[in-house]
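Me: I hope this is not a bother. Any chance you could explain this protein sequence and its structure tokens? It all follows right here:
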Amino acid sequence: MAKATSSAAAAGGRGPAHHRTRLLLLLLVAIAASASTAGFLLRGALRDPCDARGGSAALAAEGSPLGFMRSKLVLLASHELSLSGGPLLLMELAFLLRNAGSQVVWITNQRSEETNDVTYSLEHRMLKHGVQVLPARGQEAVDTALKADLVILNTAVAGKWLDPVLKDHVPEVLPKILWWIHEMRGHYFKLEYVKHLPFVAGAMIDSHITAEYWKNRTSDRLKIQMPQTYVVHLGNSKELMEVAEDNVARRVLWEHVRESLGVRNNDLLFAIINSVSRGKGQDLFLQAFYQSLQFIQQQKLKVPTMHAVVVGSDMNAQTKFETQLRDFVVKNAIHDRVHFVNKTLAVAPYLAAIDVLVQNSQARGECFGRITIEAMAFKLPVLGTAAGGTTEIVLDGTTGLLHPAGKDGVAPLAENIARLASDAELRVSMGKKGYDRVKERFMEHHMAERIAAVLKEVLQKSRQRSRP
């Protein structure tokens, strides 16, 4: 069978000696912990918590583009609380607002009957940052929504919270709602989810392609119009950039992860870092990887030993799809070249240890694809599908190479893998240009500035529409 490992650690620091000591300690914590828990611990440890009683938040607000949000009450409504992209992005926004001095309240609409370790850990992290966590249903949630200066609904599914909870108060709250949408898949376009969408203050979407898709789909299928729509590209967090730009940290992580995978330092690693599912295209990636090995052998190309790393497995509950992936690996006798890694929030160790990121999301692609800019921060070239937000991030032929989605993309992806495997200078050049692009467009302060512009306009509209 293909090899499986647990997550390694991410780390950052302030002074060289302190940094190295802290890094190694965090590595030891990660090795001893489970993947998801380690990811939470490490990312939480790297960010200084905002003081819920003021102090640091007041100081941060002065220099923040979000400073005008100081003392504002913001209600964040998420459809779930998990390690998936939507909730984690909303949490980042919560921390940005707290650092700017906002009063932030979080509710989760769909909660499992038994609070699991991940939910508990994420809620605990929010509480440490001064974010109040409330039940999604009940009078306190209604009162908070009515008092709030701004309500942010996260994902299309979060719209199901409005009618059952707010009931007759929905018209009062709609003028101060900013709806943050991350979805591209068709089943999210249900009238029960988005029927209130035309009446909110605005919709915030992560890429121009996704925004255009939503405008067309809602108009054609649901016969409703989108509100004022704002496109806000995301940015990398400060702690991830600290690791990406720290040569000592990267070297330690490089050696540890490669040792855990059982690969040599001079081997080439092509990795796909997404939850394992058909929509993320791990099956087509492995097919392309296998074809690239055959092509290299046929052409007698001189390349380092190549490996494929699939980060995003669930060791406790392997799906039928993942079983098919592993069967493919065994059937084609590439089990010594393919490594399955358990899902983790701590992606920095793998970005530090690999040579190329593969972003192979299928159909309409990713709404944005946060892992893509994270990889570029680590000076990695990206092989991505020519779909969705990836086309707004990766410059084809400059910071990476794009291939079609679907089965038609397997052969081109295989060619691109072989091309980068055989050209070290191209890998370095693309990685450097990708890093430069991140510094120019996809930093946390860029995201904060873009969101600040949206919030200013939405608050102004809300005040105008709420006047008698």
